[in-house]
Prior knowledge:
Layout: E1 3-14, H1 20-25, E2 27-37, H2 40-45, H3 54-66, H4 73-84, E3 90-98, E4 112-118
Antiparallel strand pairs: 1-2, 2-3, 3-4
Amino acid sequence: MTDELAVTGIECFGHHGVFEFERREGQVFVIDLVLGVDTAAAAASDDLPDTVDYGSLVASVKAAVEKDPVDLIETLAQRVAGVCLLDDRVEWARITVHKPDAPIEATFSDVALTITRKREVARD
């Protein structure tokens, strides 16, 4: 059985994009996380070490978004998923990267990409 832990609306400032002005000026990116986690052990023990510490995770995700620029939000979403899957208790991660200030010549409210990544199963 897998439960879902969600943290939404994580605001970060990054310098990602294909255009030079995006890299130079930067912009806000908003990250939503939904993680597949078995929370039974944490519920039974009521101890933080038995679950995903979402405070520490958010700090790590924010740091990952705010470092080394990339061209595409696809690459950024993959980076964030990798950070989430570092915790062995996370079975899968659904990541949404919002780019509300994307350089589009039209009125719009958001650009968002959602990916789902699962933990790789070790094969002998």
